[in-house]
Model the fold of this input.
Amino acid sequence: MSFRPLFSRDRLWASLLTLALIALALIALRAMAARPVGPGTVLLGGFALILGGLSLLLIYRLWALHTLDYWVQRDAIHILWNGEEAIVPLDHVQRVERGDGLDLKPNWLHWPEPWIGYDADARILAYASQPPERSLIIVTDEENYLISPDDPDAFIAAFEERRDFGPARKLKPVIYLAPWRQHWLLRDRVAQLLLFGGLALGLVLLAYVTWRYPQLPETIALHFDLDGNPDLLSPRRSIFLIPGVALLIGFLNAAIGYAFYAYRRFIAYLLWSASVILQLMGLYIAMRLINLAVG
Done:
């Protein structure tokens, strides 16, 4: 028997906030496209990037809340959330009762799902859309589970009815994670540092060139001979070749390293490290060329 979670107003507010953030991001992008290249472009682009990131985070969390579901079967209670499945065998359950009086603090950093998480002190796994006073707690010898079915009385009745039948098979309490949550990128801190560090440095390089662009003369030197004299003059827009090439090579290295990771992890680390070094070199070269051009 399936039970949906109680509707949370946080979902409504989060949906409205997501639409507002997307609208503001689009307005910022439109304003950025209408402005000449310069500091204003960088500020608007950064603003749009932050708003877009927040929007994606809220969309992900709203989807996770949408997947929350509870199943009462003869052998166990199944709690589904975001590709995760918690199995609570009925013969391990001592009782299912109201969560009134349970002292559990919401995690507002995870809004709009502040009642989903783990409280080690209280030994509670929370899969709820509502605070404890509007939820149920499943008490077992190992852990307690906080849930918020839309019909608590029907949930308790379904649990007691199936428990009286007795289990058809013996199960153990277990939590199955979604395959994507076991991906190596979520566990490998070195890979995260190299990949996201390279991307961040590439964006810093692009932002720096864009910020300084209005100060450049119409023609700039991109190369110098052994005596330090310029031997390659180009229009000032050519300065964007530096961040463009650096980002392109960085993306290629990231993709190739991703493909090699499962077979030759050292090669993946080497490629990603080269991308980080390349972004730093690009930033140094861009700073030198721009400072020489500006004088």
User: Anything to note?
Assistant: Residues 1-180 form one domain.
